[in-house]
Amino acid sequence: MAPDNRTVYVADQNSKDVHFIGLDDRQIAVVKVPNTPRFLAVSPDGARIYVSMFENDFTGNGLAVIDTAKRTVVKNIRTGPRPFEPAVASDGQVWLPIHNGARVEIYDDQTLTEAARISVPPNPHWVTFSPDGSIAYTANHESSQISVINTKDRLVLRNIKVGKSPHSIAVTPDGRTLIVTNYDLDTVEVFDTGSLRRLYRLAVGKEPQAVITSTDGKHAYVVNEGSDNLSVVDLKAGKVVSTVAVGDSPRVIAVSPDGLRLYVTDGNGRTVTVLRTTAK
What we know:
By secondary structure, the chain is mainly beta. It has strands at residues 7-12, 17-22, 28-32, 37-42, 48-53, 62-67, 72-78, 87-88, 94-98, 103-107, 114-119, 124-129, 135-140, 145-150, 155-161, 166-171, 177-182, 187-192, 197-203, 208-213, 219-224, 229-234, 239-245, 250-255, 261-266, 271-276.
């Protein structure tokens, strides 16, 4: 989602296209990338998107850097094998989990070259940051752990055991609560970030892929690929308060900057489901 609330960006895993969906006129523009796009992240100023890429045979591993104004690829960076969901840190650098490399690669946003590597347990899918940018968290799928990383010195502070196959991870805007999806258990786990103690575990839909929090931090939205729906979790009450049908095989989710809309990509449906939130 663009920070100006006007454009949704979608990585199309059925092609080599990244779609720019204009929310004002609902027109769609396409930017071609060298290999199959998998996931993407938007820079804080909205000037760039960073797109992870790889083919089904694990070739074509890379990170495409797209200028959003010109709608052109600035650079195609070769990366480690099977790069997953990128994230942009508060200093602008791009953190990229390398699934088959048991590491996170960090890319400088000025030189567009690799600046550092951090080893984590196998196999990282997702990266997210604390609101102040001091801590990074990774969801490490095959090892059923999350890593807690000091972003300043890039040291892993702790690895925490979670449920089977954590796929994605989110932090509330106040930085106090961490939510993890357990893909093979059909659950989410909620942790206190201060103590890193698990607060509770909840059943959601089948094969929860992605999670994001509401802009006010009251709810978590969980995309369930196996049941084609979205679970709304009341984080204070610790329960699922709503289940909403979406398209076929939902994969990832974005929330608009004003908190009023959710955008869910439907992998097999080749659509984006738009939902209205209860935010005021």
